TrEMBL record:
Protein name in the entry: Uncharacterized protein LOC118278290
InterPro entries in alphabetical order: CHK_kinase-like (IPR015897), EcKL (IPR004119), Kinase-like_dom_sf (IPR011009)
The CHK kinase-like domain, residue ranges: 126-313
PANTHER family: CHK KINASE-LIKE DOMAIN-CONTAINING PROTEIN-RELATED, PROTEIN KINASE-LIKE DOMAIN-CONTAINING
Pfam families given in the database record: EcKL
Amino acid sequence: MSHITEDYLSGVIRRIAVVCQLSDWSFVQEKFVNMAQNYFGDLIPITLSGTRHGVSVSYNIVLKLAPINEEYRVSGAVTVMFARETYVYSTLMKAYREILQRLPPQSQYVIPKCYYVQQEYCKEVIALQDMTVEGYRPYVHAMFLDLDHTLVSLKSLAKLHSLSFILQNERPQQFEDIMTICGPLTESTNSRYMDIMKDRLDKALKKFPASDITPVLQKLRKNCAKYFKAAVYSVQNTCICHGDIWKENILYKYEGNKPVSACVIDYQTTRKCCPAFDVMYLILSSTNSELRNKYFQQLMEIYYRTFEIALKDAGISSQTVYSRPMFDADMRVVAPACLITANTALWLSNGLQEEGHVRSKHQWTTKEEKEKAVEKYKTIISTMIDDLTNFGYMPLNEF
């Protein structure tokens, strides 16, 4: 996508070697065994070797490189997202690592090491620890997560949210400074993002010209900006949220064939929001209807229990900062915005986004393939709306 040349890549690695204080260094470009979808830039795994103070060292690194061609930067979305993610890794995650040093194993949150960041326009770089070498890998077996993977994901998310509340409690000024950079997502702060959400709702409406859920989609489209604003300003509390946590942005580590740990990645949309938004969005975008209907309460319980324990380990009462009743109430408030976001993600992952700078990675080449993908997408959206209605998060009399 970005036409990364060997000379450009070597220049980037040279700067990383300087930061790592390496001499006589060399690198080998590696390959991922499994590649998750990445829509903003290039991911290049390398092994960087050299000597430091006379000792041989080696680093397994994933380079995240922004598109260097201006044609991919016209909308400004890529620039904003890379700026946000470089800030998260260089500042926020550094603060979280310091907090984690004194928390027990049960509350540890997995954070890849960040070796280097560069924010120069069209030359943005993030050099991260290659977590696949540590045994983490994307879930590529199916479109949706099974129960074990969902539970592990929610536990990791709960720990991420707890770190935000701990940071706010212990370092209020730094927390406020970070919130200034990782501001909320509203129409006034990111009209481009909101336009994308509305566009995908327009596309959804074309696939549902006259059905039971058409009025729901129409109201979501009409009040799109209002629903995203409510997820920040009409909730019980907010924290520093991931903002785009679905299965494409999570890596898993296994013992046998069972996932035992999750590593959340891709922090381009990290922002001030309600914790319930991340939870609801993860469940909607990454599980199927059968799993939701069978285990929804268990998913809620495992998230909140993990969150509660992590805060307790830091000497904070969850009842004070974000009680279970507050969380339950917020799940209802954020449901419409989560559904809108999930619609956008699933339109993309079903191979239906054929134009624009961010397109589906797997597009269909025949009419039959596309028709099948459309029907699959329609079934997914219909069941999401049905489930939210049945759970009481989107009463039909309000739509």
